[in-house]
Write a structure and sequence with these properties.
The protein is α+β, with helices and mostly antiparallel strands. The protein has 13 helices and twelve strands.
């Protein structure tokens, strides 16, 4: 891997203009003055060092396959389950949609080397049922579980053969409220009706209460924002103002959440109960993510949901993605599934990242102003920040958590 190879990879990502390729949006040209130096020339100020650490769309990889494939042929080769990076493991087999879905094998030429004790093979196993996953770990048939229901995770604590690790993440569960279907008083009423403490209690440690959209540890997090708290009387008064709620006609709403995510199911059940006490009938629907997302993006507004639950995390160690993806005006919608549009907020969103690069205090204040605006307008709410609860066989050492990559296991660092 050389500067020239890195330049080619980045330029290809920019040209493809897919996924989170916006992380390179400020790049105008790239120079390679020597074999191991990249010089970026930007069209505007941007925190490029942060952006280059993104979870995706910042990969450095060879831009052609082993048989010289380029263009569409190279894309097809990659999409068939091949890789062309510089990591410690390489794809051996991809069984799309199967239980034993991916097998990785040791990359013998890995630049980090293989001295000492390392795993030489990695298997990714898809186990939809938490109870089954727990049984597999207890019997030693799997080595590591990334996430599991909090009650099952807690049950591992008395087992000396299993180690548990809990760590804060920069991930939170969001509820996006359909501003096209719900008036401001109704949206505010919904947010006052939710028992946030009750949700956190029910999660048994996998969630903590949040303040605003930005989790602790990131620029733009503040603990003194005007957040919503459970207030049944306020919720009832706002619903009555809109002609619904206690003593008035019932309000019928719909909520979708992602199938197979047990924490989302718990939250959906609690919100349904909270709203029922206010004469609001909430129908909850568990959908596979592609189906849920397609429904949210439907061109037919009548097909969309009133509340869309999903987990969110930053593309890189910065809060920008909560705003540019979820709250900037989109037509047609992609991730802005509250369908919110505020030209004033759009302007602030477009100003903030250059400030992160040149004037962090000003950027921080702008992030605070944006969060105050959306708390007042109620198009979206953070229901809690997620603690990751990992479980693994106790003989393993070297596991570390990076909040920028909470769902990544750096297997080369692990000692069997």
């Amino acid at each position: 891997m050389t500067a020239q190879a890195a330049k080619a990879a980045i330029q290809r990502t920019i040209k493809l203009n897919g996924g989170a390729s916006y992380v390179w949006a400020a790049v105008k040209t790239i120079d390679t003055p020597d074999q191991y130096t990249l010089v970026f020339h930007l069209s505007y100020a941007s925190p490029l060092a942060l952006q280059a650490s993104a979870d995706y769309s910042a990969y450095i990889y060879d831009t052609q396959g082993p048989a010289g494939q380029t263009g569409n042929a190279f894309t097809s080769w990659l999409n068939a389950g091949h890789d062309t990076g510089t990591g410690p493991y390489t794809v051996q087999t991809w069984n799309k949609g199967q239980e034993f879905e991916v097998y990785l094998k040791q990359s013998g030429k890995y630049w980090g080397g293989w001295s000492g004790s390392h795993f030489t093979k990695v298997v990714f196993r898809v186990v939809p049922q938490d109870t089954t996953a727990a049984q597999l770990l207890r019997s030693g048939q799997v080595t590591f579980i990334e996430q599991i229901s909090s009650s099952l995770w807690s049950s591992f604590k008395g087992d000396s053969s299993i180690a548990t690790v809990s760590s804060p993440s920069w991930q939170n569960l969001l509820g996006q409220l359909n501003v096209k279907a719900l008036s401001l008083p109704v949206r505010q009423a919904i947010l006052y009706a939710i028992d946030y403490r009750g949700i956190v209690t029910a999660l048994h440690g996998s969630g903590v209460q949040s303040s605003g959209l930005v989790p602790p540890g990131l620029l733009g997090h503040f603990g003194d924002l005007p957040d919503y708290s459970y207030n049944k009387a306020k919720a009832a008064a706002l619903l009555n103002q809109a002609g619904y709620g206690p003593g008035k006609k019932a309000l019928n709403l719909s909520l979708t959440y992602t199938q197979g995510v047990s924490d989302e199911q718990v939250v959906a059940t609690i919100i349904k109960s909270d709203l029922a006490a206010l004469n609001v009938n909430l129908s909850t629907q568990s959908l596979a993510w592609p189906t849920q997302w397609s429904k949210g993006k439907s061109s037919n507004a009548a097909q969309r949901q009133d509340i869309f639950l999903e987990y969110w995390w930053p593309d890189y160690a910065d809060p920008y993605s909560w705003f540019v993806n979820l709250l900037e005006t989109e037509n047609p919608p992609n991730f802005n599934l509250s369908y919110y549009s505020n030209p004033s907020l759009d302007k602030m969103i477009n100003q903030v990242e250059p400030l992160v690069a040149t004037d962090k205090p000003a950027a921080e204040q702008l992030y605070k102003n944006m969060q105050v605006t959306i708390l007042q307008q109620a198009p979206i709410v953070s229901l809690y920040n997620q603690n990751y609860q990992y479980a693994m066989l106790s003989g393993i050492s070297g596991f570390r958590v990076d909040p920028a990559y909470p769902n990544v296991v750096f297997v080369h660092d692990l000692k069997p």
